[in-house]
Write a structure and sequence with these properties.
The structure holds two protein chains of two kinds. By secondary structure, chain A is an alpha/beta fold. Chain A has a single domain (2-356), classed as TIM Barrel (Alpha-Beta Barrel). Chain A is built from eleven helices and twelve strands. In chain A, the strands form three sheets. In chain A, strands 1-2-3-4-7-8-9-12 form an eight-stranded parallel beta barrel, surrounded by five helices. Chain A has a two-stranded antiparallel ribbon with strand order 5-6. Chain A has a two-stranded parallel sheet with strand order 10-11. In chain A, strand 5 (149-152) and strand 6 form a beta hairpin. Chain A starts with a strand and ends in a 6-residue tail after the last helix. In chain B, 40% of the residues lie in helices and 18% in strands. Chain B is built from 15 helices and 16 strands. Chain B has helices at residues 11-22, 79-99, 137-155, 177-183, 199-211, 230-237, 246-261, 270-273, 285-291, 300-310, 317-332, 385-393, 398-404, 414-431, 434-448; strands at 2-6, 28-33, 44-48, 65-68, 104-108, 160-166, 168-170, 186-188, 196-198, 218-222, 240-242, 344-351, 356-363, 366-371, 379-384, 408-411. In chain B, the strands form four sheets. A seven-stranded parallel beta sheet of chain B has the order 3-2-1-4-5-6-10, sandwiched between helices. In chain B, strands 14-13-12-15-16 form a five-stranded mixed beta sheet. A two-stranded parallel ribbon of chain B has the order 7-9. In chain B, strand 12 (344-351) and strand 13 (356-363) form a beta hairpin. The N and C termini of chain B lie far apart (48 Å). The chains are: A alpha/beta, B alpha/beta. At the A-B interface, helix 7, helix 8 and helix 9 of A face helix 1, helix 13, strand 16 and helix 14 of B.
Chain lengths: 357, 457
């Protein structure tokens, strides 16, 4: 099993100064993760999701990280493909450049965006986001392998063009896709793509989802030149030796993460300003006690890895039993102080990772 | 681990399936029942089956344990059919257990296996002689099945048999007259103490028996301590006491089948009503000591207090209004693009005072809400009615419910997103400017008003 880290670049109640600070903090966290032997740094692309995600230019951040690190893989989790966000040629060029500069360390994931905030901001045609994604995800690997690329499709009519540079990984960087909807993992598997999933639901549900994904992947018609069969989950995580402290900060962070996401994805509106209805304070003592007891209890969801190393190992074991290949740990959650993320990175690497080597 | 449950769709079966779904070491779960199950889970295979059908044996292959719950408790079936299901069905299940060498067999017998007759010692323990009561079909069946178990146990010592002998199960979804009464917050007056047990506690005992190492062989009584008369129970729990005379009960016994046929009450076996005179006090110390059974309904009063606090009586009008409003809003609003291809049948269970049950059906992104429970659902969402009101009033938030387990989910986890979207949508409306926001805010204020104390008397 592989362990990676995930950046939304969350900031609770940002100021100009704290926004700057978060970017520098994330660099520090990524550099530490590289030293500690984490597998990959994944970063999202979102636009205008104030507080929830300030990560709008991942290609810049990831290039910076590539320069500062040695071994850790550099992951786009994910690039938005509807062409109002990114023209497919620009993606092929940027990912290939990043692959060259990082020494072939790029993992490339793609998605179609699902919040009204970004869809409206870029005036995307919401009705055919999936079709846009599908056409681009098939074009990009061809741009990497064909000396002269041309394309005639629903959205693009591109005359013979030499898309340069080419990536250093052969045939091209491994390809992944976001599964925002619960049933989309199998659809991603059918295209021969690795699956990047939110973590939620019971153990048997996750087990089944992994199995369905693998079945689809086994019979895949890959859109790339190679198939990537890989199932990753992104649990909210904070692991400290002090169980109670980990839960105080980790549960508050996980709640901020989930609640701020709900404001952008489930409210049916495009919120602006400081998010209302997102709790930022610690859980009440009674709620904290209940939340601590609910971890790994029978019937619990396998979603968050919050607590001391023993509790974390139990939850990781559940993901492993379900057949998950990689955990992309979301430690950088709004309200969680940078120092605790650093401590959590170390604790997890020392006391949890070795058990799943 | 593979577990087969017979009767998994009933009152107790549903509670047992819920626990088994939550146990991670159980990888395969088969439920045999004539009704579809009330729960969903990816490892659950629900088979439409009759316990009398020899073909069910095929489902026992590779099973590590069989939990046999299928039994007709009340009803107006002709006696031969009643016996064929209860006794013949059990024999058929036992044959399948033997054929596939299932090492563990857990059977829910009953206090009635001792015979609902007077003259029992106080208390009844597991070694108390059982007495055959031919005129009371239920009791006679439980007695005969235990006899058959004795014979099977001797012939198949390799099968560890656990016999649980619960008192009268009290809980949600009781499909008999006591349930019909309690739903109306009424107890029928009777001088003899009623032997009671909280149904969730019986489900817990079944799981304890399943997990016992070494296997828990033999019989275990399951009943609340300190049995009390109806009058005492009513006094302690605020339930209304319905006075009745022997003559009244005799009339009721004749009237009940008619009321049942008219659909006013559940199918009632008049034989049950004649059994109130027998004094049966059962000791469950063995289950406590050997299974580690710690019932929440420790005493009879606790059992009824649990009933009052857990089982919805009349639905809170604020819940009715809120769900009605969501239904109206869903009809008018277009499906969000993310949900456009979603098909999901959700069973929303609001427990505790003021609660109720709804079916939330999402078809191609369109939501419809109807009363009652879908069978089978894609997922079940369980939370207290008061908790939903607290979320809507801002006293707690949806994220906290998910982290603390105050919201339980079985089956497809997308149901959580659905409920989250309903709550977030409502709260967003309440922040909106203009008339619509004002109306939603006023409505929210009314929803958030502190709960009226449950009217019980």
């Amino acid at each position: 099993m592989k362990f990676s880290i995930f950046f939304e670049m969350q900031i609770a109640d940002p100021t100009r100064a704290s926004e700057v600070q978060v970017f520098h903090d994330c660099v520090e966290q990524a550099v530490l993760a590289d030293q500690l032997g984490y597998h990959c740094v994944w970063e999202v692309e979102h636009h205008g999701l104030y507080e929830y995600s300030h990560s709008s230019a991942p290609e810049v951040f990831l290039a910076f990280i590539a320069a500062r690190t040695q071994k850790i893989r550099i992951g786009h989790g994910v690039t938005l493909l509807p062409h109002r966000y990114n023209h497919p040629i620009r993606i092929a060029e940027r990912v290939a450049t990043l692959d060259i500069l990082s020494g072939g360390r790029v993992n490339w994931g793609s998605g179609k965006s699902s919040s009204l905030t970004e869809q409206h901001a870029f005036e995307s045609d919401i009705a055919n986001l999936h079709a846009q994604w599908l056409e681009a995800v098939e074009m990009i690997p061809r741009m990497w392998s064909a000396d002269v690329f041309s394309h005639k499709g629903k959205f693009f009519d591109i005359p013979p063009t030499q898309v340069v540079p080419k990536p250093v990984q052969t045939p091209h960087p491994p390809m992944f896709a976001a599964c925002s909807k619960p049933d989309s993992a199998a659809a991603v598997g059918r295209l021969g793509l690795g699956a990047l999933n939110f973590a939620f639901g019971s153990d048997d549900y996750l087990t089944d989802k992994v199995a369905e994904y693998r079945k689809a992947s086994a019979a895949a018609h890959p859109v790339g030149r190679q198939k990537t069969e890989w199932f990753a989950c992104t649990p909210a995580t904070l692991v400290l030796r002090d169980d109670k402290k980990a839960c105080e900060y980790g549960m508050r962070g996980a709640r901020f993460f989930g609640s701020s996401m709900a404001e952008y994805y489930f409210s049916g509106t495009r919120p602006t300003g400081k998010l209302k209805g997102v709790p930022r304070d610690f859980l009440s003592p009674a709620d904290l006690t209940a939340a601590m007891a609910a971890r790994n209890a029978p019937g619990s969801s396998v979603a968050t890895i919050v607590g001391d190393p023993a509790s974390a190992r139990e939850t990781v074991e559940r993901f492993k039993d379900a057949g998950v290949d990689e955990l992309i740990l979301v430690m950088q959650m709004g309200t969680v102080p940078h120092e605790l993320v650093m401590e959590s990175l170390r604790t997890f690497a020392e006391d949890v990772m070795p058990h799943f080597g | 681990m593979k577990v087969v449950v017979t009767g998994g769709s009933g009152q107790l079966g549903t509670l047992v399936l819920r626990r088994l779904l939550g146990l991670r070491k159980i990888k395969q779960l088969v439920s045999l029942d004539l009704r579809p199950p009330a729960l969903a889970g990816r490892k659950l295979t629900a088979i439409h089956a009759d316990v009398r059908d020899p073909a069910i044996a095929a489902h026992f292959a590779g099973a590590d344990a069989v939990i046999h719950l299928a039994f007709v408790v009340t009803g107006l079936l002709p006696r031969p059919q009643f016996d064929a299901i209860n006794i013949g069905g059990t024999d058929n299940v036992l044959a399948a257990v033997a054929a596939h060498q299932v090492p563990r067999f857990i059977y829910t017998s009953s206090i009635a296996a001792y015979g609902v007759v007077s003259g029992h010692p106080d208390p009844i323990v597991e070694t108390t002689p059982r007495r055959y009561q031919p005129e009371f079909a239920y009791s006679a069946c439980k007695y005969t099945v235990e006899e058959h178990l004795d014979a099977f146990e001797a012939a198949h010592p390799e099968v560890a048999i656990t016999r649980l002998r619960p008192a009268i199960l009290v809980g949600n979804h009781m499909e008999h007259v006591l349930g019909d009464m309690l739903r109306r917050r009424v107890l029928v007056d009777s001088e003899t103490p009623m032997p009671l047990v909280w149904d969730e506690d019986v489900a817990d005992a079944i799981i304890l028996a399943l997990q016992a190492a070494p296997a828990a062989r033999g019989a275990f009584n399951l009943g609340a301590r300190e049995p009390a008369s109806s009058a005492e129970l009513a006094r302690a729990t605020g339930l209304r006491l319905l006075r009745s005379s022997p003559l009244g009960r005799a009339i009721a016994a004749r009237a009940l089948p008619l009321l049942a046929r008219l659909g006013v009450i559940h199918a009632a076996d008049p034989a049950w009503l004649k059994q109130t005179a027998a004094r049966m006090v059962m000791a469950s110390d063995k289950a406590r000591a050997e299974l580690g059974w710690r019932p929440r309904g420790d005493t009879a009063v606790d059992v009824l207090r649990l009933y009052v606090s857990e089982v919805p009586g009349r639905e809170d009008p604020r819940i009715t209004a809120f769900l009605g409003m969501v239904k109206l809003a869903a009809r008018r609003m277009p499906a969000p693009p993310e949900a456009r291809h979603m098909n999901l049948t959700i069973h929303l269970v609001l427990t505790g005072p003021g609660g109720g049950e709804r079916t939330l059906r999402l078809r191609d992104g369109r939501l419809d809400i109807t009363r009652g429970a879908p069978r089978p659902p894609d997922s079940t969402l369980t939370l207290r009615a008061q908790t939903l009101l607290d979320v809507l009033a801002g006293r707690t938030d949806f994220g906290t419910l998910q982290l603390t387990g105050a919201l339980r989910v079985e089956g497809d986890p997308a149901a959580q997103m659905m409920l989250g979207a309903i709550v977030t949508g409502f709260k967003t409306q309440a922040r909106a400017r203009g008339l619509r926001g004002q109306i939603t805010r006023a409505f929210g204020k009314w929803l958030g008003a502190h709960a009226q104390p449950e009217r019980t008397a």
